[in-house]
Write a structure and sequence with these properties.
29% of the residues lie in helices and 24% in strands. The chain has 291 residues and is of the alpha/beta class. The strands form two sheets. Strands 1, 2, 4, 5, 7, 8, 9, 10, 11 and 12 form a ten-stranded mixed sheet that branches. Strands 3-6 form a two-stranded parallel ribbon. The radius of gyration is 21 Å and the shape is globular. The two termini are 38 Å apart.
């Protein structure tokens, strides 16, 4: 059942506060010194508290996305395949946050590596606020950060005007999550090819999605067919593709997330693995990832 978060107003309702005249302003040099100290502490935390990435991202080279439908994946090989399942959707409609947890069944072998995926959707009429930020962190922590979960992945096609909010959300999530739990995000192909904003986000893995690309589809495919790669090194360890959109270029030297528009079946799984292995084995030995 969806959960509505009362008291999440639009941004304009949050701009009324107390008068600044009640609090004496600090001297400018002291204020600058305080800001520099805070910046230094934040940098120190980022580099010392966070475990190295390779200690957290312990996912198989093949991940199956299990989306919003009943999925029986009891037939997969958990030694080579993990499951990234939709754990819940956070929707902001007319300024109100609605949390919808996964209601569909999911079956996997007991030893399967699991990654919970949180989808975020915001309608064009809504302005994201600090109240939304706090509520989303709470909701995602409850939906995704559970003992059996090795990684939490955020799926949010943020507009350019929402990037500052998205960055703040990822920073707050990283602070709330257990140190050993990885934090991942999906990325539009255009982000990974053209933008620098992914470089300093506090995530352990970025998964560019090379399917359902819309107007960018031809440009992106041509870029890779000519031997190109993603601009950012952060986008070169994983990639997301769809079973119904075969690629004419090779990306099997990295972790692959497979999206199936239909429910997974043993036949679909075996066919996907077979195509993956054939293309992987055609690569030079130094670029292969074993499963």
């Amino acid at each position: 059942m969806s959960k509505r978060w009362p008291g999440i107003p639009r941004l304009r309702h949050l701009t009324h506060g107390g008068s600044e005249a009640q609090t004496p302003r600090p001297e400018l040099p002291a204020l600058v010194a305080a800001l520099l100290l805070l910046a230094w502490l934040a940098t120190a935390w980022f580099h010392t508290v966070r475990p190295p990435v390779d200690q957290r991202v312990r996912l198989p080279q093949i991940m199956l996305w299990a989306w919003e439908r009943p999925e029986d994946l009891s037939f997969i090989d958990p030694s080579s395949t993990g499951v990234a399942f939709l754990a819940g959707t956070l929707s902001v409609r007319h300024g109100e946050l609605v949390v919808r947890p996964r209601l569909q069944s999911l079956k996997t072998p007991p030893t399967t590596v699991l990654e919970s995926v949180i989808r975020i959707e915001v309608d064009p009429d809504s302005v994201l606020s600090p109240a939304h930020l706090s509520a989303m962190v709470t909701a995602i922590s409850k939906l995704g950060a559970k003992p059996a979960i090795r990684s939490v992945q955020i799926d949010f096609d943020a507009a350019r005007s929402q990037r500052a909010f998205y960055r703040a959300l990822l920073c707050d999530l990283r602070k709330e999550m257990a140190p050993e739990t990885a934090l991942s995000m999906t990325a539009l192909a255009s982000w990974a090819l053209h933008d620098r904003w992914l470089e300093k986000l506090p995530v352990d893995d970025v998964v560019p999605m090379l399917f359902r690309m819309g107007a960018d589809r031809h440009q992106v495919r041509q870029h890779f067919e000519l031997g190109g790669d993603f601009y950012s090194n952060r986008c070169r360890s994983s990639v997301g593709i769809a079973t119904d959109e075969p690629l004419r270029f090779e990306l099997t030297d990295r972790r692959i997330y497979f999206f199936n528009p239909k429910a997974w079946t043993p036949a679909a799984y075996e066919s996907t693995l077979q195509q993956y292995r054939e293309r992987r084995d055609a690569l030079p030995a130094g670029r292969r990832q074993r499963t």
